[in-house]
Amino acid sequence: MLECVINISEGRNLELLSDLRAAGGPSLRDLHADEFHNRSVFTLINDPEPLSRDVHALISASYDALDLRLHEGVHPRFGVVDVVPFVALAPVEPARALELRDRTAQWISETFGVPTFLYGPVDGVIRTLPDVRRRAFDGLSPDFGATSASPKLGAVAVGARPILVAWNIWLSDVSRDETRALAKAVRRSEVRSLAFRAGEFTQVSCNLIDPMVIGPSVVYDEVAARLPEGGEIVRAELVGLVPFAVLDAVDRRRWAQLGLSEDQTIESRL
Hints:
The chain has 2 domains: 2-161, Formiminotransferase-cyclodeaminase, Chain B, domain 1 (2-Layer Sandwich), CATH 3.30.990.10; 165-269, 2-Layer Sandwich (Alpha-Beta Plaits). The strands form 2 sheets. A 7-stranded mixed sheet has the order 2-3-1-4-7-5-6. A 4-stranded antiparallel sheet has the order 9-10-8-11, covered by helices on one side. It has 8 helices and 11 strands. It has 270 residues and is of the alpha+beta class.
């Protein structure tokens, strides 16, 4: 089986999100929406052909319903459908993930006229999603489609990558600058991190790139140890699903503190 974790630039319109959930079909295993980021993460898992059909249906519905010109939110984005990574869930499937990535990227550009950037293995090197965000249209041309973004739909990054864990720490009484410093302190090759303001709170938003090496408990403890005077961790939050092995590597007594639960594992949703 393969996973596709589609990031859509809409997290507030619950009626619309319900329609998009339905478009995800039987492959849809999880939906995480955030009003401050104004972004939703749809996790789809299935065998390649039904997964591809449901990915196409969800992307089509999103492009039909949304307009990037009307979007506002704290999370960086450059498209209505912002990121479409394919993930091999078994060691024998990376080639299938690459095949689906390339087919989907070409389909998006040909069907909707949206410039499409690849990430993951490209021409013998690994291109990362941060590389795409930093260089798109400024030193990096789209791999498919037009050379400028669609005003309504923007652009899209379509990738093939290993499993990662998207995970946030919510803070109170910590300034935006202090939160940036915390995000910088935990950042390394295994951890990508950004700082956001989310209403009355701030947030250290993380992608744990190698969660079996640097897992959520390590990052949580590093943030807790560096909190400024008066600041506190309100909660931790998993975005999407996680392999059970990541939970199993953490003391079960800390799962609630870390925002983890067995119900949010990939295995529990299949």
